[in-house]
Fold this sequence. Notes:
This protein has helices at 4-29, 38-41, 43-53, 55-73, 85-94. It is mainly alpha-helical. The radius of gyration is 14 Å and the shape is elongated. The N and C termini lie far apart (32 Å). 27% of the residues are buried.
Amino acid sequence: xxxLFPRLSRSLIGMLLCTAAxxxxxxxxxHRPWRAFVPIAFVFVIVxxxxxxxxxxxxxxxAATALIFAYYMLPPHRxxxxxxxxxxxxxxxxx
Length: 95
């Protein structure tokens, strides 16, 4: 129990960094022509977060990032549905 709090807070910090970066990136890239490549490029961020905060944080961060990208960045906006097949494939490759 003594070592649980530092590990948990460290994991939460990693998750917060990953989701905040995904949210900022998705809002900025929502209407840009290169938005389809953002999920694949974001793999670099997920790998860095995983290396620093652990594999579990990277896995949960990748799933949260996919949801954030689907909801905020990929059309139709404000929906988890992804219409474009290439966008779906890029999210799948990111995961």
